[in-house]
Amino acid sequence: MKTVAVFIALLLGAALPAGCAPAAEEESRTEVPAAADPAAPDLTGHYRIYSLGEGDELSFPIDISAHESGIWWEPGCAGQGLSYRSAGEGKVEFYGPTADTPQIVCDIGFPEELPRVWDALEGVHSVSRESDRSIRLGEGEAQIVLEPTTDPVPDTLAGKWRVEEIDGLSTEGMRRMQFTADETEIWWEPRCAGFVQPYRLKGRRIDIGPEQRPPAPPRPPSADPLPPPPPVCTIGLPPYLADARTALLAAETIRRDNRNHLVIAGGGHYIVLAKR
């Protein structure tokens, strides 16, 4: 493989997908992120790749996202992507990171054939747009087609969700764990066990946990007494509940994968939920 060890801050600059941050030891670097090339074709969108040319079908389709200067596999903090720039009229050049570029945290698994995708994309390609909004890169038998995906994101988590995967780990015990949600909260049953968290969705952004609000003013002595807190039950907790809680409370982005499962990522963690 040529170059795609890790995704980089240079690739996405200020538009880096949420949920990723430069590794702490690299924060002192002062290198200026690459700006979008105004002459380059704008590939912004969400796409699915089925093959790397005629007769070179992928075992499973791979979804990628792009903005005006970079292309990547979600979650962005997995470290998989390329930058791109103009290579002349109607052409684009994809290129990888330099050796001294700050790295992105979040070491998780990615599709086995993804490195082949980056190898096939790296370099110069002609760009043509079709009426169905697909983008064709290159010519002849080596042509790569980026098929547009609507990639709908939910406007609510309401329903019951089975945990499929946490930070690359998937076990039978984990898949027996489920969460329930309504329009405003997500929780593990029974609610009295104490994991009940509000959530907020806005497009691909998700925030789980109490909102940061200023402290409430002191209550006057004449005010009515506060209602009693909800009862807390003592119950055994599943072994992966703490890991699920960590991933959910770190959440920053939400998307659907090829199986229509929800992938919630942020803070170097991710959790995959399947609708029950």
Give the overall silhouette: elongated
Rounded to an integer, what's the Rg over CA atoms?
Answer: 22 Å
> Structural class of the helix and strand makeup?
mainly beta
Task: Give the distance, in angstroms, between the N- and C-terminal Cα atoms.
Answer: 39 Å
Strand order of the largest sheet: 1-2-3-4-5-6-7-8
* Residue share in helix: under 10%
Largest sheet: 8 strands, antiparallel, barrel
* Number of distinct beta strands: 16
Nearest-integer average pLDDT: 78
Contiguous helical run count: 4
Keywords:
276 residues, mainly beta, Lipocalin, 2 domains, 8-stranded antiparallel β-sheet, 4 helices, 32% strand, elongated, disordered N terminus
How does this model look, in words?
There is one protein chain. The chain is mainly beta. It has 2 domains: 9-148, no CATH class; 159-212 and 231-275, Lipocalin, CATH 2.40.128. It has helices at 9-12, 114-121, 172-175, 241-249, and strands spanning 45-51, 57-66, 70-72, 81-86, 91-95, 123-129, 135-137, 144-148, 159-166, 178-181, 185-187, 196-202, 205-208, 253-256, 262-266, 269-275. The strands form 2 sheets. An 8-stranded antiparallel β-barrel has the order 1-2-3-4-5-6-7-8. The chain has an 8-stranded antiparallel sheet with strand order 13-12-11-10-9-16-15-14, with helices on one face. A hairpin with an 8-residue loop joins strand 3 and strand 4 (81-86). It starts with 8 loop residues before the first helix and ends with a strand. Residues 212-231 have a biased composition (Pro residues).
